[in-house]
Amino acid sequence: MKPKLYIETYGCQMNFADSDVLAAILAPRYDRTDTYKSADLILMNTCSIRDHAEQKVLNRLREFVALKKRRAGLHIGIVGCMAERMKDELLEEALRVDLVVGPDAYRQIPDLLDQLEAGGGKGLAVALSEEETYHDIIPLRAAENKVSAFVSIMRGCQNFCAYCVVPYTRGAERSRPMDSIVDEVRRLWDEGYREVTLLGQNVNSYRFGEIGFPRLMAEVAAVNPQLRVRFATSHPKDLSDELLEVMAAHANICPAIHLPVQAGSDSMLKRMNRKYTRQHYLQRVAAIRRYLPDVSLSTDIIAGFCGETEAEHQETLSLMREVGYDSAFMFKYSDRPGTFAHRHYTDDIPEAEKTRRLNEIIALQTELSLACNQKYVGRTVEVLVEGVSEKRGHQYIGRNPQNKVVLFEPTEAVVRPGDYVQVRVTRCSAVTLLGELV
Ligand code: 5AD
Ligand code: SF4
User: Fold this and answer.
1) What is the pLDDT of residues 282-334, one digit of tens each?
2) Which of 22, 168, 170, 202 to mutate to test the pocket of ligand 2 (most atoms within 8 A of CB)?
3) Residue 126 vs residues 2, 123, 129, 355: alpha-carbon distances, Å
4) What is the distance between the alpha carbons of residues 172 and 129, in angstroms, rounded to a whole number?
């Protein structure tokens, strides 16, 4: 029996994908467990995107540290973005962390563990890399969902949006070789997976030699016509017509695009260093709708960024109405040490005002989401079944191509995770479609 590894993951899908890479790197010496109670090594894969995310991790860390006092031999590691951002600060006595390892240094963990076991003190590895993509490591996926998988296709980001810490925690952009991506997707298909989401901070700038993102998408879609293909995240400055053509030409590339806008005014976009205008963004949306009339669009929005005026806030609301987003992730601006905004602007919108603006944005998005979902009522949609929803009284749960969650009642028919079924939508809320099996 090998000792046990517990990984607790925070933040974006990229981190969840990385946790499976960590499990693979450590597989020769640890079995992964899904409870920290029996663990010999606890890794917290952390997020630095907002202060709130970091505070959550630090609170939880205190619990683990308390556990360590009672359990000799338990090791605790902080990996991911907070490790990279805070470095040896995390190794200070009060925290009692044994390992601090940044996103590009995961291969060093076994050596660090050897040192630790030989009594060599605490382990720190935080150098960022220009090459590391972990392309040769087959992620060891946690067993619970065998239908849908995330596949990381690139790492890092060098857009340097003024508010964002990611270029500092995840380093320069680099793409994984196309063959290793396609091989992984083929293997997933063979294992029974029916959906893959290609992941990167800015997938539209994927480039490996001569190969760009549209070509990669076409190759992945060709693995099997029954495999659903998705991707995230897109940057509006790089989303090309060529990609839209490829999407339109492949029925199994899902018509769902996550296109973070962040703000609706040119002045704000400029201060954020987003490198596009409102007009450019709206033209991209128009192109998307031309190629993919049935598309669903989602976005990210920040409320209360440095210097945001009421008029600029109103422009964000008007852009949301103009696009009519299906869904959105909406955040209050959080000042992050090291970013351009932290160094050159003032975080001057009072907390209460940020909250008011965010609430207005959320209320509007709820209306827009409901309106989008109502268009599906009466239609029959194809659902890839993921399982049975425990929370929802044993209804089946799955998604349609537009990535909307669909719930339906069980019938006589045998339905298994990974099946495609037709569901007639009878009702909806702002977040789900409800229907019956046809
Ligand atoms: N404060 C608030 N939200 C942020 N995001 C990125 N940085 C910050 C920040 N400092 C949001 C952006 C991004 C999403 C992943 O998180 O909207 O698209
Ligand atoms: Fe992911 Fe960004 Fe959080 Fe890092 S900071 S874990 S890249 S969301």
Assistant:
1) 999 999 999 999 999 999 999 999 999 999 999 999 999 999 999 999 999 99
2) 170
3) 27, 10, 9, 35
4) 8
How much distance in Å is there from the Cα of 337 to the middle of ligand 2?
15
Residue whose CB lies within 8 A of the most ligand 1 atoms, among 159, 163, 320, 335, for a mutation test: 163
Which one of the ligands is nearest to 14 CA? 2
Q: Considering only CA atoms, which of 234, 228, 198 is closest in space to residue 216? A: 198
The residues facing 18 across adjacent strands are: none
Look at residue 44 and tell me whether its pLDDT is greater than 80.
yes
Distance CA 349, CA 308 (A): 7
Span 368-423, pLDDT tens digits? 999 999 999 999 999 999 999 877 678 999 999 999 999 999 888 889 999 999 99
DSSP codes joined into one string, 331-387: EE----TTSHHHHHS---S-HHHHHHHHHHHHHHHHHHHHHHHHTTTT-EEEEEEEE
Q: Whose CA is nearest to atom 7 of ligand 1?
A: 164
What's the mean pLDDT when you consider all of the chain?
95
Residue 50 CB–ligand 1 contact under 6 Å: yes
Give the closest residue to 135 by CA, choosing from 194, 91, 181. Answer: 181
Amino acid (one-letter) located at 136: D
- Pairing assessment for the beta strands 395-399 and 380-389 based on DSSP bridges: antiparallel
Query: Tokens standing for 400?
Result: 């349609």
Answering whether pTM is above 0.85, one says yes
- What pLDDT is recorded for position 143? 66
Does the beta carbon of 164 sit less than 6 angstroms from any atom of ligand 1? Answer: yes
334 lines ligand 1 (CB under 6 A): yes
Q: Which residue has the tokens 């973005």?
A: 81
Is 331 close to ligand 1, i.e. is its CB under 6 Å away? yes
Whose CA is closest to 364, among 326, 320, 312? 320
